[in-house]
Design brief:
Blueprint lengths: L1 H7 L9 E9 L5 H9 L17 E7 L2 E7 L6 H6 L5 H12 L2 E7 L11 H9 L5 E6 L9 H9 L3 E2 L2 E5 L4 H11 L9 H9 L12 H7 L2 E5 L7 H5 L7 E6 L8 H11 L1 E2 L14 H16 L9 E9 L5 E9 L2 H8 L4 H18 L3 E9 L2
Parallel strand pairs: 1-3, 1-4, 4-5, 5-9, 12-13
Antiparallel strand pairs: 1-10, 2-3, 6-7, 7-8, 11-12
Helix pairs in contact: 6-7, 7-9, 8-11, 12-14
Membrane topology: Peripheral membrane protein
Protein name: GTPase Era, mitochondrial
Family: Belongs to the TRAFAC class TrmE-Era-EngA-EngB-Septin-like GTPase superfamily. Era GTPase family.
Length: 386
């Protein structure tokens, strides 16, 4: 009731409000929800190692002083064939595109630890960026802590940007592995000449993981790492162009971070706060997400099901809330029924002597207590779909 009241009422506007709507897009399992949770400072979006954990578009809200960031956490960009394979709702194909329509800035997240996909953006991501060329875009390289050879980042940046950052062409000449690491770090500094002093300071303090650091003089660093920049004019890209492209030449900035551990997330957060433009807030300052408490509960339980069950089982589970009540001491009492289509799935979900379902209930209950900041008694039941 409190969440509904906050969402329904007019926001509490400061004197000079600023706002920024941010769409986070990328391939499934790139870490979009993990990054969203880190920016919010609390876990409200489901996270698991399996793809398509996020099933629908959800908004997170960061309010800091007079600025409000609205984070549009979206399902991973996928195609119709994969959506059918995973029994996904049709909305998962359209939600990322809808988020772009509302966005003032887009973060494109790439998992650099996945050597199968890291050296190119998917066709779905490229189509999305080309459809909305007016929306400023930022490349975020995630999971850099898992890279043993950091000089790989230079090659990845060159591939994923088509050698162009912030309208300037980057030409990486032959350099050894140590200077390659410096070059990758220098690329992140590409910035317009009229950037404010605060933004310059921000970029100077931005560090890629494991010892990457930026010198005060970006031109000197670029020279040391054999990078040459030249002005590159804007260009429109058609379907035929996209098929031959591995990256996007329209990125304004590049950030390297490890969202799971929160490393360098604050640097990105400060940058986002600085990009906010004057405009009315959309949410009350006490709102953390547009999701209802029941949606958060369903997502967290499904996250645990995805973690502990074989690949094909979780996507067929239907969740039904049977009880949602406040107890006499203010605790939250929740009973949820998990419906599965086959008896074999039912046995796997329950586990030997009920160990699997008990573990799911225990871990989900703990996460819910951290979200709602109250005691939660969660009971899960398993039944066959009628």
């Amino acid at each position: 009731e409190e969440q509904q009241r906050l969402l329904r009422n007019q926001p509490d506007q400061p004197e000079n409000p600023k706002v920024l709507r941010i769409a986070i897009i990328g391939a499934p399992n790139a870490g979009k929800s993990t990054l969203s949770n880190q920016l919010l400072g609390r876990k409200v979006f489901p996270v698991s190692k399996k793809v398509h954990t996020t099933r629908c578009k959800a908004w997170g809200v960061v309010t800091y002083k007079d600025t409000q960031l609205i984070i549009l956490d979206t399902p991973g960009l996928t195609n119709a064939l994969k959506a059918k394979r995973h029994n996904l709702d049709p909305a998962m194909l359209t939600d990322p595109w809808d988020s772009m329509k509302h966005a003032d800035l887009v973060l494109v997240l790439v998992d650099v630890s996945d050597h199968w996909t890291r050296d190119s953006l998917s066709q779905e991501v490229l189509k999305c960026l080309s459809q909305f060329p007016h929306v400023p875009s930022v490349l975020v390289l995630n999971k850099v802590d898992l890279l043993k050879k950091k000089f790989i980042l230079l090659d990845l940046v060159t591939e994923l940007t088509e050698g162009v950052v912030n309208g300037k062409k980057l030409q990486a000449l032959k350099c050894n592995s140590s200077s390659s690491a410096e070059a990758a770090s220098a690329i992140t500094q590409t910035s317009p000449k009229d950037r404010t002093r605060e933004s310059d300071r921000l970029q100077e303090t931005h560090r890629a993981q494991d010892g990457f650091s930026l010198d005060n003089d970006s031109d000197a660093r670029a020279s040391e790492s054999s990078l040459v920049t030249e002005e590159q004019g804007p260009k429109r890209y058609g379907p035929k162009d996209l098929k031959n492209m591995k990256g996007w030449p329209g990125f304004q900035e590049i950030f390297m971070l490890a969202a799971l551990h929160g490393e360098e997330v604050n640097t990105l957060k400060r940058y986002l706060l600085m990009q906010a433009k004057p405009g009315p807030w959309e949410f009350h300052s006490e709102v953390l997400t547009s999701q209802s408490p029941q949606e958060i509960c369903n997502n967290i339980i499904r996250e645990k099901i995805l973690e502990y069950l074989p690949h094909e089982v979780p996507y067929s589970v239907t969740q039904v809330v049977e009880m949602w009540e406040e107890g006499p001491s203010g605790e939250l009492l929740i009973v949820q029924n998990l419906l599965v289509p086959r008896k074999s799935h039912m046995m796997m979900l329950i586990g030997k002597q009920g160990k699997v379902i008990s573990r799911i209930a225990q871990e989900a209950g703990q996460d819910l207590m951290n979200v709602f900041l109250c005691d939660v008694h969660l009971k899960l039941k398993v039944d066959l779909k009628s």
